[in-house]
Design a protein that fits this description.
The chain is mainly alpha-helical. The protein contains 12 helices and 13 strands. The chain has one domain: Glycosyltransferase.
Length: about 350
């Protein structure tokens, strides 16, 4: 760890620069600065706004004193994101000017925004954001039909939860519960918010499969997608649906480490992942955001040594800029990825490294 102190400080300073470069004058926060000299020529264009990514970036910015970036982004959501003010809904991604790119609905992005606003409230006033909070919470509820969301995509934008089949994505459900809790905490309870939250909690309790020993990523009460997804780490943080020491979560995390590790402790999204950030498909690498997420989990569990191990796995394989993936111990796919830098900052704070 001592040998990484200087590099950690260098990455921290780089993270500040990445956040500033990805935060545009309009308030939009793009996933990556494609004009960065290190941005690979053979990868997809990430000059789009994913509200989920941006929410994590906002939290990281608040932790390191860049308060204007979150404030501008919250304003962008309200004033620029197409159809948001009308419906309270986020779609997959947006052009920086606010136009929608695709119509896939991802409910976890709404929960993420509310979580980021609540985090911002710990440092700064948010009264002017009440309309944004209310519209977002109303959007979650209007998309919820009692036992599932209308047709929705998961955190990775790959799998659809069918309304007809009463399917729901575990991570999405947890983040929307968190979002509604936050909304009620910040501006007071509304009957529909409370009702929807209670219905969601009832459903989410069904996401643990005892015979498998872990929380499944998609379920409908009768059948579950048995592929173990590392995003289940989000059930502890930031959603706080379960405690880190819950036996179900311990079993889930142990299985993630066992089944979703490559290259000596690098964490992949799930077995068989073929997304490499390029126009072609191949064998994906480990995702730094997941190693940092696992580090946060162990920090919450009070196991600092393990938290450092998964944090350092990334630090030892990068220089200044953090990529979307690491493969064969080298940065891979999009670089720099602002979400990776956000998770570095957040997990570093959990470890009290800066």
């Amino acid at each position: 760890m001592l040998g990484n102190v200087e590099k950690i400080q260098t990455i921290l300073e780089t993270s500040k620069k990445v956040f500033k470069e990805c935060s545009l004058k309009s308030g939009a926060i793009v996933a990556s600065n494609i004009h960065d000299p290190d941005y690979p020529k053979d990868v997809k264009n990430y000059y789009y706004v994913w509200p989920r990514d941006a929410s994590f970036i906002c939290v990281a910015c608040d932790l390191i004193g860049l308060k204007r970036i979150p404030e501008k982004f919250f304003e962008w959501c309200w004033n620029e994101a197409e159809r948001f003010k009308e419906k309270g809904i986020f779609y997959m991604r947006y052009y920086p000017d606010g136009r929608m790119y695709g119509r896939q609905f991802q409910p976890d992005q709404l929960g993420s925004l509310l979580w980021a606003i609540e985090h911002h409230s710990k440092y700064h006033g948010i009264i002017k954001l009440n309309s944004l909070i209310e519209k977002t919470a109303d959007g979650i509820c209007s998309s919820w039909i009692g036992s599932c969301f209308r047709r929705s995509f998961d955190i990775w934008e790959e799998r659809v939860a069918s309304q007809r089949k009463n399917e729901k994505h575990t991570y999405s459900l947890a983040m929307c519960i968190k979002g509604l809790e936050v909304a009620m905490k910040l501006i007071g309870k509304k009957e529909q918010w409370l009702k929807s939250k209670e219905q969601m909690e009832k459903e989410l309790k069904k996401s643990y499969e005892k015979k498998l020993g872990y929380f499944v990523r998609t379920f409908n009460g009768r059948r579950a997608n048995e592929t173990l997804d590392s995003s289940m780490l989000g059930l502890v943080w930031p959603s706080e649906f379960v405690q880190a020491d819950d036996r179900r979560m311990i079993s889930t995390v142990n299985t993630i480490i066992q089944k979703n590790s490559i290259d000596e402790n690098g964490i992949i999204r799930y077995k068989g992942d073929k997304y490499i950030g390029k126009l072609k498909r191949g064998n994906a690498g480990a995702w730094p955001i997941l190693n940092f997420w696992l580090s946060i989990y162990f920090s919450n569990l009070g196991k600092r040594k393990k938290a450092l191990k998964h944090f350092d796995w990334v630090i030892e394989r990068v220089e200044k800029k953090l990529p979307e993936q690491i493969k064969d111990s080298k940065p891979f796919s999009i670089i720099p990825l602002a979400w990776s830098h956000a998770m570095f900052v957040i997990s570093g704070r959990f470890l009290e490294l800066f």
